[in-house]
Protein 1
Amino acid sequence: MSDNKFSFKQFELHQELCAMKVGTDSVLLGAWAILPEKGRILDIGAGTGILSLMAAQRTLHTSITAIEIDTPASRQAQENVMNSTWNDRIEVINKDFTQVADGITQPFDSIISNPPYFEKSLLSPDAARTTARHTTSLSYDAIFSLARNIIAPHGNLSLVLPAELYKEVNNTAMLYGWGASRLTWVRTTPRKNPKRALCEWRRNHFAPCTQEMLTIHTATGEYSNEYILLTKEFYLHF
C-alpha cells in the first residue's frame, strides 16, 4: 500500500497533502466514539477526513461538518469525501475552529477530534506539521470553551489524547462544565503502561466515569480480540 493512500473496507484515503498521516489514534477514536444514529456531528481538525468518513459509515441519517484549518489538508479531505459513498452528508470547511464556532446556530449531537497534543515538545520546522501536531493553533481550552456553546444538551465530546495528559485535560474540561463519562485506556501490549486515552465528556455530567482498558497486541504479538472487534468494520486485514 502506498504511503500516500490508505484503504479501508468502505472508503479510501489519499493523504499526500496532509502533514499528519492516517494513524491508529484516529481509527480507535472513530470506532470507539458514541455517535447519534441521526442528527449532527462535528469533526474538529479533520485532516484526511478519516473521522468524518468513519462516522458516516457508522451512522445512517447524520450530517457531518469537518473543520480543517490547513488549506492543503482541507482540499485533501474534500477529495476523499467526494470519492466516498457519503459525499452528500459531509461538509468540509477550511477555517479555524474558533472562527467557525461563533457562527454556529444549530447545536451538534456529537463532537469528535484527534487534536494536536505535543504541547511541550520542540516545534517542527515544517509549518504544516507544526500546525497539525501542536496546540499552537488549537488548545484544549478552546475546544472545551467553544464546544460547550454548540453541543446539544444530550450531546457528547470525544477526544483521543496521550494517557499522561488525561488528568490535565480533564481538569480543563471541568473548568468549562464538562464531566467525564467514558474513558478507555489504550496500551500496546499487556506489559506496557497505557499510551493513549479515549475520552468522552458530557455537559453537566455528574455520574461516575466508566473506565476500561484496551490492549492492542497480545503478549505473543497478535492483534487482541478486543482490538479486532472494535476495528473490524474498517481495517481490510480483519
Protein 2
Amino acid sequence: MELESTPTASDTLRALNARIQEASSFVDLIDGEMQKTIVGQKDMVQKLLVALLADGHIMLEGMPGLAKTLAIKTLSEVVAVGFSRIQFTPDLLPADLVGTMVYSPRSEEFTVKKGPVFSNFILADEINRAPAKVQSALLEAMQERQVTIGSGTYKLPEPFLVMATMNPVEQEGTYPLPEAQTDRFMLKVVLDYPRKEEERSIIRQNTGAGARIPVQKVIQPQDIINARQLVREVYMDEKIERYIVDIVHATRKPADHRLNELTSLISFGGSPRASIYMALGAKAHAFTKRRGYVIPEDVRAICPDVLRHRIGLTYEAEAENVRVDEIIGKVLNTVEVP
C-alpha cells in the first residue's frame, strides 16, 4: 500500500511561482504597447502598473510636458477601460466632480447626472489647485469606491485608479493637500526631465510626418481584477515583513535604529498605511517581474515612493535643505536587509 505524499512548502511555492509566471505574461504586452507612445519615463510606467495591480492610487509630481497625461491615457487604451481627465481649478465644485441631481420639468422629478469620476481611470490634473472640499470629494471616492448623490449611493466601476498630478514650481493659487489626504495615495512619484537621447526621440516622434502609432488593447478589465487577487497571493516571508516594519518604524523613532542624526529632522514618520502599501507594492512589483515571491529588492524599489509623502520634515530640516529622499536613503542604508 503506497502512502500519499503531502506537498511541502517548497512544492507549494514552486506551483504558485509557475502560476504567477503564466498569469503575469500580460505585463510585457502592456509595457510593449506603452513604449509605442511613451519615450523614457520607465519608472513612471512601472509605478503606474504597480499601483494598478495593488489596487492603489498614485500621485505624480513633475514639470509640465513630462507625459503624465499621455501615460495614463495610453494605459487606459491598452487595458480597454474608460478614462476621464479632470482639470482642477480654484472655482471647481464637488458637483463638477461627482455629479448632481437635475430637475426635469417634464417628469417633475429629480434625476441623477453622474460626474466624470464615474470612469475607470481618473486623471486629477493639478489636484492642489482646487479647494479642500473638492479634494475631499475625490478622496472619498478613492477610499470608499462609491459616491453619494442626493439620497442615493452609487458604486464606482472596477478597476478604479486615480492618478493625481502636482506642479512643484507654481505654488501661487494652490491649496496644499493635508498629510491625512496625501496618505490616501499609495505612491508619490517624482519625475525628472528626459535624457538627451530620449528627448531627441520625443522630437522625432512629435514632429515627423508619420501619424501617432496606435496602441492595441492587449487585456480586458477583468484580467486586471483577477491579477489583483493573484498579487495578494504572492508569497512574503516573515523576514520581509519584519524588514518592512523596521523601515517604517525607523521613520518614527530613528534613535531605535542607530539613526540619531535624523531625530531632529523628522517631525512625523510613516503611518500604518505605509507598511500596508509597502507590502502590497512589493508584491505587485514582484508580480511585474514575473515572480511569485517577494525579495528585499522589491521592497527597496517601492520604498521611496511609498514613504516620500508620509514623512514630515522639521523646520530644522527645511533650514538645512534636507530632502525627504535623503532621509529615506539613510534609512534604507541603515536598516538591516534580511
Protein 3
Amino acid sequence: MSDLQNTGLSPAENLRVLSEKIKNENGVLSALRDEIGKVIIGQTYMVDRLLIALLADGHVLLEGVPGLAKTLAIKSLSEAVSAQFSRIQFTPDLLPADVTGTLIYKQKSETFQVKKGPIFANFVLADEINRAPAKVQSALLEAMQEKQVTIGDETFVLPSPFLVLATQNPIEQEGTYPLPEAQVDRFMLKVVMSYPNMDDEKRIIRSNVAMEGKPTINTVLDPSDILRLRGLVREVYVDEKIEQYIVDIVFATRFPAQFNLASLAPLIAFGCSPRASINLALAAKAYAFLQNRAFVVPEDIRAIAADVMCHRIGLTYEAEAENITSFDIVQKILAAVQVP
C-alpha cells in the first residue's frame, strides 16, 4: 500500500495530491529533455520512449538505419544523469566474459580474483547488439531479468538503477545474428526510428557544421532522483477496467478468434508473453506520468502498445509472404478490442 493510501484521504484526494507531486517532478524531466535536446534534434518520439523506460525500470531496444543518432541519444541521456555508464561494442568475436567479467588467477596469492565486466554500470549501451552470437546474448539474460550477474560460484547484484539500452541496424544482415526470443522479450520497449523531417535535417546540418563544437550537456539527475521518480510512477492509478483492457489486447494476440479476429490466426506464430501485460501497464503509468496525470486512460495504452508488443509477436511465413508486419497486427487488434 502506498503512502498516499495510508493518509486516510479519499481516492479523489489521493489522486489530487499525487497529481501535484507529479506536476512538481515533471520540471526535472523537462530539464532532462532540454539537455538531451541540445544534441538530439527532432526524434521526440524516441526521447520520450527513453524517458518511459527510465521511469518504468525497463530496457530499450532502438532499431534504425545508421546515422539516426541512436548511440548519441543514449550517451546524451547518460551524460544528463550522474550515473555510471559503459559501452559495449558487440562484435562476432565477443565472449560472455567480455560482458559480465571473469575470474583471474593471481599467481602470488595462488587464488582466483573476480574481474567485473562492463555490465556493472547504471546505463549499459549495447551497441549493435545483433552482431554478437547467442552465447554472448545469453550472458545478458540474467543481468536484464534478475539484475544480478554470476561469475564462477559468486553472484553479484548490479547497481541500481540498471538499464540496458541496445541498438541494432535492421538493413545490414551480413555478420549479424537474430536475437533469441528470450532476449527480445526482456526489452520493455522496441523503438523503430524513422528519418528526420526536412526542417529537422536542416537544423542537424547547422548544428554539426557550426564552429562552436559539441554542446555541453549538464547533469540534472542522479540515481536517487530516478528511484524517487520511479516510486511516484508506481503510484499512478490503474483502474480495473484498464487492467482488463490490457489483458484483452494481449490475449487477442494469443487467441484472435475470441475477439472476432479469426483472420489474424494464420498470421501469428505465437502471441505476447505475460511480460507484455506487465510492461504495458508499467509503460502506460510512465506515459501518464509524462502527461502530468496521476491515472492511466485507454489512450495511454494505445499510445505505447506498439512499442511494447510488436517485438513479442511471432509472425508466420504466411504473414511475411503477404508483407504483414507485427505493427499491422497490433493496429488491427487495437481497432477491434473494445475500449473501456
Protein 4
Amino acid sequence: MRLSDLAIGDCGVIRGIEPVGGSAPHDMSADELERRLLEMGFVEGAQFRILHEGLIGRDPIAVKLDDMRVALRRSEARTILVEHQRETAAGKPAS
C-alpha cells in the first residue's frame, strides 16, 4: 500500500520508498526524491499518522512521522510504501 492511498486518521509503519513513473516533481529525479524523503525521516520502521489533507485534490497532506510533522505532495507520498495498521480504542496503532 502507498501513503498516498490513505486518509485522515490512518496510521501505520513505513516499509520503504519505491518511485513510480511520473511521481517525482518535474524538476527532480526519482533518485533525488528518494534521497529527500529519506532525509525527511521516511525511513523503514518509522511510524506515521495522516493528520490533514488540503481542500483541493486532497493535496498536500500533513503526516505525523514519529515525533515530527511533515507536509508533502500526494505525488511524493505515492512513492512511500507503508503497512497500514488499525488503531486500538486508546488511539494507538495495534501491534
